[in-house]
Write a structure and sequence with these properties.
By secondary structure, this protein is mainly alpha-helical. The protein contains nine helices and four strands, in the order αααααααααββββ.
């Protein structure tokens, strides 16, 4: 229930007439939900703060570090210094939590417990480095994209009063004022269609997986040498498609 609890805490912190920065608030919500799913137990508040701050800085800096030359990352710019300090603090905090979980030797019902209990084909547990890598992968995929999607969902609903009214009516009908559970999702059929349409119009995926060429070939009329990577940028239609609900 960590996700729904985080959402309820965020929503109850708002008041009528308040203006919020939807993208930042939804990113923070996604971050809080993710960290609670990963670690239900942390050694102290400073550890949790180091992980959340590092993940937030990592997601905010990711695009810049993808497009800029690698050599730029080695320059002692103020931004690089802040980033490296945050990454060091976060990595040390994650290592401390992994060590604490291993020492406790119990299943706390979260993602980290599942990773520590996992075994490879030979029956061997994941190393601390492998667990750390899995945590970082989940952080990269579980914050920016969900946060951006939630922000756009709020934006589109807020700009379409008729849609907002239908979403509110469906929530009232299905939930009756209670916090939603996983089992309620199939019943929220109209809201699901709204989210799918937002994903079509406002895809959070900036890049699709790279396509490497192992032999000379041509793509869209241009020759590609072996070893060349091609990043695809989604170009989903931006025009609304009128559909009868």
């Amino acid at each position: 229930m960590s996700t729904s609890e985080a959402a309820e805490e965020t929503a109850t912190s708002w008041h009528d007439g308040q203006t919020i920065q939807a993208d930042e608030v939804m990113n923070d919500l996604a971050l809080t939900a993710l960290t609670r799913s990963l670690f239900k137990f942390t050694v102290n508040p400073d550890t949790a703060d180091a992980i959340k701050h590092g993940m937030r800085m990592l997601t905010h800096s990711l695009l810049k570090r993808i497009v800029l030359p690698t050599a730029w990352e080695r320059l002692p710019t103020p931004g690089n210094i802040r980033f490296n300090r945050a990454m060091t603090r976060m990595n040390n905090a994650i290592a401390d939590v992994i060590a604490e979980y291993r020492d406790a030797g119990e299943d706390r019902g979260d993602v980290l417990s599942a990773l520590l209990a996992a075994r490879d084909d030979n029956g061997n547990p994941l190393s601390d480095q492998e667990v750390h890598a899995q945590v970082m992968t989940l952080a990269l995929t579980g914050i920016e994209a969900p946060g951006a999607t939630l922000g756009w969902v709020l934006y589109e609903i807020g700009n379409n009063p008729e849609v907002a009214a239908r979403v509110a009516a469906e929530l009232d009908s299905v939930l009756g004022g209670r916090t939603p559970a996983y089992e309620d999702l199939p019943k929220l059929e109209y809201l699901g269609r709204v989210i799918n349409e937002v994903l079509r119009l406002r895809t959070p995926m900036l890049f699709l997986p790279a396509d490497s060429a192992d032999r000379p070939r041509r793509r869209i009329g241009h020759p590609r040498r072996p070893g060349t990577d091609l990043q695809s940028i989604p170009a989903a239609p931006r025009r609304p498609v009128v559909r009868e609900p």
